Amino acid sequence: MERKIISKNFGVEDSWTLPVYEANGGYAAMRKAFGMDPQAVLEEVKASKIRGRGGAGFPMGLKWSFVPRDIDKPKYLCVNADEGEPGTFKDRHILENDPHMMIEGIIICCWAVGIRKAFIYIRGEFHKQCDRLDSAVREAYEKGYLGRNINSDGFDLDIVVHRGAGAYICGEETGLIESVEGKRGQPRMKPPFPALIGVFDCPTVVNNVETLAALPWILQNGAAAYAAIGTEKSSGTKLWSISGHVERPGVYELDMGVPLRVLLEEHAGGVRNGKKLKAVIPGGSSTPVLTAEEAYTVNLDYESLEKAGSMLGSGAMIIIDEETCMVWVLTILEKFYAHESCGQCPPCREGTAWMHRLLCKIERGEGTLEDLDKLEDIANNIGGKTICVLSDAAAMPAQSFIKKFRHEFEEHIKTGHCRFRDNKWTAALEGVH
Ligand SMILES: Cc1cc2nc3c(=O)[nH]c(=O)nc-3n(C[C@H](O)[C@H](O)[C@H](O)COP(=O)(O)O)c2cc1C
Ligand code: SF4
What we know:
Elements lengths: L17 H6 L4 H7 L3 H11 L11 H6 L10 E6 L9 H7 L1 H15 L3 E6 L4 H16 L15 E6 L9 H8 L23 E5 H5 L1 H7 L1 H5 L9 E8 L5 E6 L2 E2 H8 L9 E5 L8 E2 H6 L1 E2 L1 H6 L8 E6 L4 H15 L5 H18 L5 H14 L7 H26 L18
Parallel strand pairs: 1-2, 1-4, 2-3, 5-11
Antiparallel strand pairs: 5-6, 7-10, 8-9, 8-11
Helix pairs in contact: 2-6, 2-10, 3-6, 5-6, 5-7, 15-16, 15-18, 16-17, 16-18, 17-18
The structure holds flavin mononucleotide and iron/sulfur cluster (SF4).
The site of iron/sulfur cluster (SF4) has 14 residues, from α16 and α18.
Family: Belongs to the complex I 51 kDa subunit family.
Keywords: 4Fe-4S, Flavoprotein, FMN, Iron, Iron-sulfur, Metal-binding, NAD, Oxidoreductase, Quinone, Translocase
GO molecular function: 4 iron, 4 sulfur cluster binding; FMN binding; metal ion binding; NAD binding; NADH dehydrogenase (ubiquinone) activity; NADH dehydrogenase activity; quinone binding
């Protein structure tokens, strides 16, 4: 079902400005939170059962509860606005259309956890979104919603907007923390988790833009109302990004648990040009691909997608039509992962590069069945052995594409020909810088 919680102000004239946000009820949830004990705010968020919208789906309230209450160190919030996962383009809509909803969410989070400084780590390419965010932060300071004594009871809060420089790995929470500290964006070993040792070795909460933007509604309407939306284990609404071979690509806010078929056909207008569906990557490029049959019967919630052998991830669907070569798609994806590996762990650094090279060979029509076995073997062996899960993110598409569309890989190898692309080899697919 369509329900506008996070996108309620999208399309409203000047929705990104403070006067318009306040005219539509903005910052009332912040006042309500200030009237509550911080622990009560945390309990409310726990009871809403909201899970992180950045990809991992970790329960938000539980994450906050890992941060030590009484500790003689500052605590920090890092807002993950890096949005680098291919297929995902929802956070940029929040930043562009309603940055105050996220800022209000940040204030609520910081009050609940006892944080006095928040960093918003925003993707460097988001120029327009960054300008709107900077201006919204300025407005909030001018209005006294940020800065000193913002609740008239001595609570201070500062926000620093930190622009990224184009590395996907800086979206991984510990890579992000390193980058905020001014270092090279390379993930850290976990444990310790950021809740204990994060920015400048201090307890740190990392939350996604969309996760934080849901907080004003949860505080205003109550945890029970939020938990009643969606399914038992996947509460609330979600901003679904849908792209690829679809009539109306875009961002749609629908309840968790909605059938994928409803999003694709009723909202996004179905597969482009009346073609048949071949496959769907359901949760961002790293999530295992679904066949058309699987996609047409799955619901969009954590449990259903897991049962179908995939993941909800960031809720970003890439629609692939019947005339698309799956070898070509996988080659594009693996080029991305090989390029974005930070290089710390040999299985990831070497494995992603090997997978990409083998795929280029198969795509060129020069591959052998041994190459396909080798590709599968690498994919089966790089995940779970590295500092972060980028290696798993690269392995899962390869494993699922080969498992479900093996015939296409074998046909390339046996005939040296691509029936979909007429062997239009694109040199751009080669070479990882
Ligand atoms: C390689 C990689 C890239 C990631 N990129 C992003 C990103 O761009 N945005 C994001 O919110 N989370 C991203 N994540 C997930 C974060 O590590 C983290 O789980 C998330 O920011 C936590 O926020 P949440 O609990 O609100 O989802 C990425 C994870 C990995 C492994
Ligand atoms: S798994 Fe890959 S991206 Fe992650 S730390 Fe290791 S080398 Fe870097």
